[in-house]
Design a protein that fits this description.
- The complex is a heterodimer of chains A (250) and B (389).
- Chain A is an alpha/beta fold.
- Chain A contains twelve helices and four strands, in the order E-H-H-E-H-E-H-H-E-H-H-H-H-H-H-H.
- Helix content of chain A is 42%, strand content 8%.
- In chain A, strands 1-2-3-4 form a four-stranded parallel sheet.
- Chain A is globular and about 55 Å long.
- The mean pLDDT of chain A is 92.
- Helices cover 32% and strands 23% of the residues of chain B.
- In chain B, a hairpin with a 2-residue loop joins strand 4 and strand 5 (64-69).
- Chain B contains 14 helices and 16 strands.
- Mean pLDDT of chain B is 92; it is low at 1-6 and 382-389.
- Chain B has two domains: 9-91 and 114-234, no CATH class; 247-291 and 302-388, no CATH class.
- Chain B has helices at residues 14-26, 86-89, 125-139, 146-152, 171-174, 206-214, 222-234, 247-253, 259-266, 272-276, 322-341, 351-354, 362-372, 385-388, and strands at residues 10-13, 30-37, 40-45, 56-61, 64-69, 93-102, 105-109, 118-123, 156-160, 186-192, 197-203, 218-219, 283-289, 295-302, 312-313, 316-317.
- The chains are: A alpha/beta (250), B alpha+beta (389).
- At the A-B interface, helix 2, helix 6, helix 7, helix 8 and helix 10 of A face strand 5, helix 10 and strand 13 of B.
- The structure holds iron/sulfur cluster (4 copies).
- One iron/sulfur cluster (SF4) binds at residues 157-158, 161-162, 166, 168-170, 177, 179-180, 188, 191, 197 of chain A.
Amino acid sequence: MFKFASCDGCQLSLLDAEDELLSVANAMEIACFPEASRTMSKGPYDIGLVEGSITTHQDAERIQKVRRQCRVLVTIGACATAGGIQALRNSQDVDEFVRVVYATPQFISTLKLSTPIAEHVPVDFELRGCPINKYQLVELISATLAGRKPTVPTYSVCIECKRRGTVCLAVAKGVACMGPVTQAGCGAICPSFQRGCYGCYGPMETPNTPALTNQFRILGQDDQQIARAFRAFNAWAWQFRKASEECKRT
Amino acid sequence: MGPTVASNRSVIEVEGIAQLIALLQRRGYQVAGPTLRDGAIACEIINKLEDLPAGWTDEQAPGHYRVKKRNDGALFGYSVGPQSWKKFLHPPELQLVELRRDGASLKILHNHSVFPHFAFLGVRPCELAAIAVQDRVFQGGRFTDPHYDGRRGQVFIVAVQCTQAGPSCFCASMGTGPRAREGFDVALTEIIDSDHHLFVAEAGTKAGAEVLKELHAVPATPVLCQQAEESIRHASVQTRQMDTAGIRDLLYENFDHPEWDNVATRCLSCANCTMVCPTCFCTTMEDVSEVTGEHAGRWRRWDSCFTQSFSYIHGGSVRTSSKSRFRQWMTHKLASWIDQFGTSGCVGCGRCITWCPVGIEITEEVHAIRGGGVNAAPISKGDNIHELA
Ligand code: SF4
Ligand code: SF4
Ligand code: SF4
Ligand code: SF4
């Protein structure tokens, strides 16, 4: 498990998988897990899980080394797969943020963009979510150990929402729900608690963002609200980025 | 139709519905019926009369649904809701087999030979038709699906005739309603006016007749039977229609119709239409194994022709564009279904219209393919992003 710019929430998902954690620890040697232990065994490694985005020059170099040491490299979470919430700075002036936020800005060295791992090195599998779903992580590990394809669907959240029997919030309450353009994986938790999908899992396989934008307008959302809906944890995912830019432009 | 008022009709009062629920429960059924939940009239296991949405109705339009208060206490005063009985007979998620490693061999744990006994209360005529369609799919061919069969064989059905059609309904076009003539054990027609609130009941099977007898239902007067037929006739006046003349060939011959491009700009490929459709049956098979490899299972989950993985074969997905996926959905539903199962796959329930988040109307799409012009303008946001992906 390698950590880049992130909140550690995705790593914690594995610690949170209490029932499966012992089996995981038995089935494989955990060489490095910053949230659980400071020790680190020497590489090369069979599976490298990467959390976090690339935001500094050092990290941009470190990910190259990590890639060379891992047979299979899997990125986990919105930061690693799309740049994360910190990619909101990508459309702003980072230097200004640094000046405003830090007492001694001269000590801060950062890149202008927060970028996903796949923009730097080849990635074998991406696990989406903010945070990831612990069951998907365990599934990924189990499938890799068993030599089968992990069951990680790329279709819409709506499919999980319907299988679960939730009454559609978009239709029955007029909620601007991101479910139709967002990838499944969370089990459609938010709609089941009467909240529209926030898009944590990023764009689904074929997101028709113009059609959803149009529908959000019909539901009474203004351009700023729509741009914000696309600009959350996966703001830098190109389909969402494009959708939010289209809104700003009109 | 006509006033074919049979003398075998009987009458039960509202209290009789409470007794009916209790009676079915005593007979070992889990009673499923309409109930108010999360701003909709959903289909759930119910326990008592009070669980029914008395005094509620719905307002429906493409992509729009709201529950509203009625000014009477009708128990069945609404059109079909977001869910169909499909979820009971063909569950959204089902474990087919469970395996455990047992030394050098595998132990197969079949735990699905015992099926729940359901009694459905409030099945509409279009839904009876949908169940009949799924019967053909799961029981009618060379292979019978044991999971559907096991559930279906046990079901007791109390139908409710429609006395008002919603704006999404088009059962009259599809020949599936608003009056059910078969496929039920008992059928009720709710009559509510200044004088009474009661139900004219007819038995469709021996089991249904027995239940009515046990409820001490009294014979219905010819006047009441007449009134019931009248109110059903009201529901056959429907604003939404689908012209089904030659529809199979129409769709087969219009594979390249420009309307498919138009609808593709609006369709989200979200699959809601197929999930809510009471006849769509497609599933995917998913294998899961535990980390230790000691324990594995095979699951069957609802799938949809709107996903990429649905048409994935060696080398990739066959239907990459949403145009091809929408066309597959509608062409299967209305045309190739006829070749495959000898019936249309659409019963005119209108769910795909109401529960499509962007309100795409299958009836209007047929109209457009017939050359009747396009109702909705395409979404022109420069380009359709996913076609570029
Ligand atoms: S509530 Fe949201 S995720 Fe669920 S079906 Fe409706 S649009 Fe899709
Ligand atoms: S295609 Fe639409 S209207 Fe026809 S049965 Fe399915 S959900 Fe109902
Ligand atoms: S319309 Fe699509 S999901 Fe429905 S039965 Fe046909 S192929 Fe399956
Ligand atoms: S027709 Fe509507 S419900 Fe069906 S996939 Fe397209 S947008 Fe979703």
